[in-house]
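REQUEST
  id: r-88c1
  op: predict_structure
  target: Lipase
  payload:
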Amino acid sequence: MLIITVFLSFAALVSSGHSPHSAYIEELVRNNAFGVRISDNVMEDACLDLADLVRKYNYPFEEHSVTTEDGYILGLHRIPHGRDSHNVTGDKQVVFLMHGLTSSSSDHILMGPGNGLAYILAEEGYDVWLGNARGNYFSRNHRTLNPDDQRSGFWNFSWDEIGNKDLPAMIDYALQHTGKSALHYIGFSQGTTSFFVMASLRPEYNQKIISMHALAPVAYMEHSRNLLFHLLAPYANDLEALARLIGIGEVFARSEIFTVVGKLFCNDEAITQPICSSLIFLIGGWNENQLNATMLPVILGHTPAGAAIRQAAHYGQSITNRDFRRYDHGLLENILEYGSVIPPRYDLSQITAPVFLHYSDGDPLADPTDVDRLYRGLGRPMGKFRVSQATFSHIDFIWGIDAKTLVFDRVIRYMKFMEIMH
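RESPONSE
  id: r-88c1
  status: 200
  body:
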């Protein structure tokens, strides 16, 4: 309801509601320039579940289930082959994609064939696996704990557990299912954070990685330029404790409200569409040149997908402490959990998998200074690769109009190079 209130409050201030790219996109569609690269029915795609959305565009889609050592039941998705090229099953290299905070496997699918990274990789001949962190829409399940009971303990996790327990379980499942010994890993935002957690705490998993590509890598956040995060960061522990006290552990759960808002207020004919864009820019950085606002109803039909408050609180601690450490539970619980008053640092030197850092100057969450600090701490960094467009921002790494040419094509080139070297 908060989002609806924001829309109604500011609608009168908006003079023009059309996407800055809508006329251009419509002309391309009329001329069939895309073929089926973009959605042929935005409103339909906003309402379809992810499996039906992928199958609508004639791609195969598999749904798998993985149970972690502490009982979380995770949804693991797969696009085993392409549609137009490499469209048969066979002996393919495996690539594992991991989403960002409050998101899901849909991150790499929503922009459609030709634009979504999952589709692009399938057409390049890869067996594509897409992970879902505990607590999101596809992984909101547990052997004994009830996610609807906010006091059950289900939501007592941060991205520490996602990296330490979820990623190993999903990677092992994908490798066992395909008969492979190693795979490529591509993470976005929190999907990079959780990898750094896994590869430092469980270094045996480094040998299972052919190459790791970090899109908008987030570890250190001392120089984060996101105003909202900086305002909330000093109060992260207090807000998390208060939420737990009143029985709230989940934030931004998947809801039909977001779908309705997207369809009514964020379509190309709505005068409120720029407000939709602004809300996304508030979190992910401002770059109108890369957001195809026509796709906003599809994005809001599948995102956000839910997360634990503690995940955000852990990032708040990283900003405040100017370090990359395990979750700070408080003095007594830290002693019980870690054997020390202060949470230990993640030892990045343990990360011996070949890591490629893809970053941009315009990203407010992964500042180049923090990326450089991360690079210098890694055990086997392969390089830092800056996006050539200065305004390229955080969410542009997955939904940007030019993400394929500016980011994905380079990632795939280095993946193929590493396969030769592996």
